[in-house]
Design a protein that fits this description.
There is one protein chain. About 60% of the residues lie in helices and about 5% in strands. The chain is α/β, with parallel strands linked by helices. A five-stranded parallel beta sheet has the order 2-3-4-1-5, covered by helices on one side. The protein is globular.
């Protein structure tokens, strides 16, 4: 199985990266862009695997079977470093560490590859730390940066990179991947891929987790429940609670495991108070976990708002389709009757205004310190 197999519907990009991996002197810095769900991280890992693949034949680079390919895809290859942050931004100390690592010669592979999975989460000062290393890297080092769009990276960085743009894969390709890789029932796979709007990771979760499907269904039905300010405020509270609960459920188990692992590695006593030196390290871990939890809740809420946006996206398409509404390809197919009734009660201008309100609160939540509940309450009232 090739490392490129998960990049459904991205054939032009795969071909470009494959050719670069086969070159004796590939470009030293790459910027892989694409919307959420397009597979930026998968493309970066596949490219890195092809660059260090052990196969002699150029056409077989990225075979997915050799030891190098396997370790890159599992994140354990000594010469491939993958950095992604679970905090709001990538710390400047992490950037300095990458610069230092970039100076090392590869230990076993042809190249040392450094992947920055959240290049858009670097503030200007952090980016400037990387600038010199990307502009004049050591001869055997290749940088791969990932971001939603070129505009999310400082021009001084992107001007020194070769940009590769991914697109959201077709629903049929995502569904086929779920069937082939995860053994999902074809009908369920198609439904999940459509509901996830072709985001592979979210489609996989929707296909396998009934709870996730139920939560999403409750979110997309929210506009049908809005009748007055009271119901809008209640709906906003429910939306934030759902996002918080989902984020916390995935964080709690990992936080506990991390703390237990740290205590074991420190040789902490099973009973009694921890020594001062250990308490400081445990406190540092807990602070990191709090920051990670905040981003996790923000990301989950942003995804919930994206699902909500899909309701109004479908509404707008139905309003613009007129007599051809029956042929419109909806995201929320199971809600077609309710969507048609909702679309008939408004105009495209009103729907666009509601979509703008949702996108506005998404930007505020992800880029400012606004209280999520207050922001979502204001948005919900504006949807009336």
């Amino acid at each position: 199985m090739s490392v490129w197999d998960d990049l459904q519907g991205q054939e032009p990009v795969v071909e470009q990266l494959r050719r670069a991996a086969q070159s004796p002197s590939p470009m030293h810095a790459w910027l892989i862009t694409g919307p959420p769900g397009s597979g930026r991280s998968n493309a970066a890992r596949a490219f890195a695997a092809a660059l260090v693949c052990e196969r002699v034949e150029l056409s077989e680079r990225g075979c997915g079977e050799c030891h190098a390919c396997h370790t890159v895809m599992t994140g354990t290859h000594a010469d491939v470093t993958f950095v992604a942050t679970e905090k709001t931004t990538i710390a400047i100390a992490d950037a300095r560490e990458l610069v230092t690592k970039a100076q090392d010669r590869p230990s076993s592979a042809r190249w040392r590859v450094i992947i920055v999975g959240d290049a858009d989460r670097m503030i200007e000062r952090t980016t400037n730390v990387l600038l010199k290393a990307i502009e004049e890297p050591p001869p055997r080092t290749i940088w791969i940066l990932c971001a939603p769009s070129p505009a999310d990276v400082l021009v001084t960085i992107r001007s020194r990179c070769r940009t590769v743009g991914l697109r959201v894969p077709p629903v049929a390709d995502v569904a086929a991947l779920l069937v082939r890789r995860d053994g999902v029932d074809p009908r369920q796979a198609e439904h999940a891929a459509r509901a996830a709007q072709s985001h592979v990771g979210i489609a996989r979760r929707l296909a396998r987790d009934e709870g996730a499907r139920s939560r999403r269904d409750a979110i997309v039905r929210l506009p049908l429940t809005l009748t007055d300010v009271t119901t809008a405020v209640r709906a906003a509270g429910s939306l934030v609670e759902l996002a918080t609960a989902e984020a916390n459920s995935s964080n709690d188990e990992r936080d506990t495991a991390e703390k237990e692992s740290l205590l074991v590695s420190l040789g902490a006593p099973e009973k009694g108070a921890l020594p001062a030196s250990m308490r400081s390290q445990v406190k540092a871990l807990e602070e990191d976990q709090k920051r990670r939890s905040k981003r996790s809740i923000t990301d989950t809420l942003d995804r919930a708002l994206t699902d909500l946006l899909s309701f109004y996206r479908d509404t707008l398409l139905l309003q613009l389709a007129g007599t051809e509404a029956a042929e419109v390809d909806l995201v929320n197919v199971s809600l077609r009757p309710q969507l048609q009734a909702f679309a008939a009660s408004g105009t495209p201008e009103i729907t666009l205004g509601r979509m703008d309100a949702i996108n506005s609160v998404r930007r505020r939540i992800t880029t400012t310190n606004v209280a999520p509940l207050l922001a979502v309450e204001a948005m919900a009232v504006s949807l009336l």
